[in-house]
Amino acid sequence: MPDTPEQPIVNQVARLARIHLDEQQLKSSGEKLEQILSFVSQLEQVELPEDVIPFFGAIESVNAIRDDQLQTSVPREKILDNAPESDGEFYLVPPVFKQTDS
Amino acid sequence: MEDSVLNSNSNPQSTNRQAVSFNDAKIIIGLEVHVQLDTDSKLFCGCSTRFGEAANSQTCVICTGMPGALPVINRRALELSIRTGLSLNCRIARSTKWDRKNYFYPDLPKGYQISQFDQPICGPGHLDIQTTEASGQSRRIRIERAHLEEDAGKSIHDESSRRQSSKIDLNRTGTPLLEIVTHPDIRTAAEAKAFLSELKLILNYIDVSDCNMQQGNLRCDANVNLHIPLGGEQVATPIVEIKNLNSFRAVERSITFEAQRQFEAWQENGLTIADAPKQTRGWNDQTQTTTLQREKEDSADYRYFPDPDLIAVNIEETQIELIQSQLVQLPSTLRESLVTEYNLKPDDAAVIVSQGRGVVDYFLEVADGCQDSRIANNWIGQEVLRQLNELNQTIRQYPVSPQQFTELLKLVIAGTLDQTRGKEVLNAMVEHSISSEEAIKQLGIKPVDNSELVTLCETLIDENQKVVEQIRSGNEKAIGMLIGKARKINPNANPGLVKAMLSKMITG
User: Fold this and answer.
1) What is the CATH number of the domain that holds A12?
2) Residues A95, B159: C-beta atoms closer than 8 Å
3) Domains in chain A: how many in total?
4) Is the entire prediction scored with pTM above 0.95?
């Protein structure tokens, strides 16, 4: 089966999402992606009057705004319970090394 | 053409590049400035934004990105953004929305940052800056946009620890930032510094941010490349974004370093903007150099899309008008009025205004009170600023009220106190928090009447015949010696009056 045209995009997106896909998954994801894109591209055929304002969500309401008021934060012990690793004060993560000039 | 030089290694393009001088290159600079807005709570939740609290003590399900948590935008962050935009002559969006900027980093718990992609709250604007090279000349730096976004957390890389892990503090996560992006209109490191100074001053005046760079409340990235003339054309070097700029000096020095580095790299390899992607380099304050951090992601790599948890915000015309009507006078307006209405020199006006609104108000009150803006400027611009600096105080803590200061200057203007005695009085006022009247009493300053002055001058002439001869034979400067002596005999004698009287007695 030939590579789909979307294959390079699948590789790129997998890399950015930090997920590992094996050969089979890469191929099937590419096919699915192509199906999705061709489905969505039907929208391009719709002729819209020029004065239509684009919208960005399914909800039509606007302006959900809160006042600048403090609320109690979650106690540290409790929030750190969610951490894969912690020293009781901080979240601990694998070391982040800075790259330097070669 | 020097084709006569035969060299098997010579590469004509490289030879051409070697012939270009650094001074022919134009430095192209654009800035991205992150300003922490002065809110009590975070951008999308009620956690505190206060700096320096115990690690991870100011977080909740929203700012740590727990599934199902719903962010809601902070009204004050919107208002402060609009206020900033208006102060920078920006067009304010009538409708604005939020987008997710996706990337992975341990200090970004959601895996995306809520930011604004295509509908920023502030659109195009500009800021005029005074450049030091041409005093009085201003340069207009165009602002592309300013968008509202949340800050990330803080990573602490503790390489000495046995665990060899990085620590993450999420207190800062979700703190509101306004990212102000300029067009690449800046041409020198000094202009970049001038832009930042003026921006910081404006943000202070309009009470949007305290701009504390040590605490990271004002952060700056600089995009730098060169336009180099080569054989009748112009080539551009690859763009570099410099990060980690946490002082104005770092901004200035890093740009200077980076321009030189790019020029040398180009002379060596000839790479242009078409050959290399945008790079991120970090400024290292210790070594005073920039070092490569990573190849910059393309905008597409961030896979921006509208945040489905947040709905659009429509900004009404009336709301913008209200914020506009409440805007305080900006530094540029105040500088102009100090020059045109108070007759200050532009440089003096700039010094007063650069000290913040408190010093400007102090100056205005004293200048109006004593009716002599030049003297008010001389005293405030020099004595007061020096004392504030020495005392490490703000003008609001200064022990001498504008009214008391006015009284003091009135005595100086009237000639009751000369400059030197006036300064002694001021020092006493500051030291003991007393009025000018009390200070004068404490220092034993008394008015000297005319007959006392006559006696004093006669004594001086009698006792210093040699000096008097010098003066008579045309050495006018010698009179200074007599004035000095007069001061020792009677510190209250006004040197101006003594000088006038001595001249009259000696030379007629």
Assistant:
1) 1.10.20
2) yes
3) 1
4) no
